[in-house]
Amino acid sequence: MTNDTPSGEDSLIARYFKPLATDPGAFGLVDDAAIIKAEGCDIVVKTDAIVEGVHYLPDDPPEGIAKKALRVNLSDLAAKGATPAGFVLTLALRKADESWLSAFARGLGEDAVSFGCPLLGGDTVSTPGPVMISIAAWGRVPAGRMVHRFGANPGDRIMVTGTIGDAVLGLEVLKGGPAATALAGDPAARELLIGRYRVPQPRNALAACIRDFATASMDVSDGLAGDLAKLCAASKVSAEVDVSRIPTSPVAAMLLSRGAADIAAMISGGDDYEILCTVPAVKREAFLAEAGQAGVAVAEIGTIAAGAGRPRFLDGQGAEISLTRLSFSHF
Amino acid sequence: MTNDTPSGEDSLIARYFKPLATDPGAFGLVDDAAIIKAEGCDIVVKTDAIVEGVHYLPDDPPEGIAKKALRVNLSDLAAKGATPAGFVLTLALRKADESWLSAFARGLGEDAVSFGCPLLGGDTVSTPGPVMISIAAWGRVPAGRMVHRFGANPGDRIMVTGTIGDAVLGLEVLKGGPAATALAGDPAARELLIGRYRVPQPRNALAACIRDFATASMDVSDGLAGDLAKLCAASKVSAEVDVSRIPTSPVAAMLLSRGAADIAAMISGGDDYEILCTVPAVKREAFLAEAGQAGVAVAEIGTIAAGAGRPRFLDGQGAEISLTRLSFSHF
Lengths: 331, 331
Known about the structure:
The structure is a homodimer.
Chain A lengths: L7 H10 L16 E3 L4 E11 L10 H18 L3 E11 L4 H17 L4 E8 L5 E11 L14 E5 L4 H9 L3 H5 L4 H12 L8 H7 L2 E5 L3 H12 L2 E5 L7 H8 L5 H6 L5 E6 L4 H10 L4 E8 L6 E3 L17
Parallel strand pairs in A: 3-4, 8-11
Antiparallel strand pairs in A: 2-5, 3-5, 6-9, 6-10, 7-9, 8-10
């Protein structure tokens, strides 16, 4: 072995991941650590991991797995008002499968470019168990401007981006549940829902708008109901949500109308990766206009209320919808 | 469920990890992300993961597992000349075992305090496989002062901290190899070696000294021979090492003298977590004096040479020692 013959691990990193390490602070992945320049900003840091068989299915396409692993972190940065700056990757693999790895690296590289979030370093380890991908991502916000879970005030309007519930329905399609049966003759609709489960669409285009208007913000990853409860608990407030105003996709709306989907399951299921935020009533119009400018669909779904009660989800007639669980929990 | 009744996952985080999140940027772990203040410094980032059955043994004490997970990252920060500033933790668990978790959190908390490296956030996920702990840690260096793998020049002296080879011998003791047999009657010696495998002693006290004197630096985690080859490759130089000057512990020296340990295996085994660095010959004395002031033992083991050949390891008679492998690789 000479200096030029790296170990299997180093060779794997050089082949698949070095091309992604375009930031000068990554030093081409040949050093032991990377540099992030703060340039007068605060650095926002977030870590999220996904596990084969828990957060994705073993035969999901590797490009999408890579994108999901990065995007669950990008979604948090967006909700905090931060601009992506870079990430580090821990990849635990049973074996170095070339075709899986090259597709995984391709997906990761595409997202690193399109979200402006370069790979800065990583660790590749062997495991006898399921594949696990842990990413820690950094973003920049002007000093003191990170938007928190706390900060919502009574009277603030509750806003949510995109549509809610598609991902949990997509998982149901993959698992052959009622949604799969209802969509047996409609492959395009099935693919749309599956795509929402496999590859989240984080709302990073909304970050500046969140910083400028939101009193509190978080991403919806474990279920809208549970995540709103967390935002309310952190802000020491309660909330009332008009369930009929929760944005749903045309496919989900059709499934709801046919009784093949359940709104309670959709708002307590996970994997939406939309932004949930609160905006003062007087800034409502300006926020919606700016979000429109940013190209992100936003819906107003309710109002923050005083008190410490759990958020109430009301149907079109003002009756409270009963939720057996608020969100996904690992334990 | 009310706002005050967190999920199993949140409850686990609140009980075990919130007490460790003492940094104001951690927001008590109730937010989705943390803040790092750079204050005119560069932020150095590093991630390293450890997997049950790969980097530690399933019945290793949880306090030590936590310390190892953090210290493998702290060791990199030290080698880069950075002062620890904080870390995020991904913990993949089969089940929420209270006694394991409380011991793990206790160990992690002790190290967070003693190394000044607070927990800033994390993600706890379930896995059907082995426990995996991934930590991303960062530190601060004065702008532009991170010490790289590249930068070593011909004539520079090669320095290494502490002792080399104890950890790989400790693993051999745990696995019942020749070192275990040779030390059958000496439990204190066995414990010393096992301790070096289970809980590394990162040389963070040397960080400022590395910044002030080293031309190149990295930590020794995969084996001294392989890691020196990496440093040389990055610096486009070669090296000659006098193996008789490689520092060994009294126990390791005794095993070597009895033929129960092999120096080639000790310098290509992993888990030392010492610092390997190069220092210009004219700064040699000053470096050794400052390292002594910092309380870190340092030995000079060789000299950087021109050329691209692999580093040569010479015995006391100047004959090259043959190494069948240079370091540990996962794949």
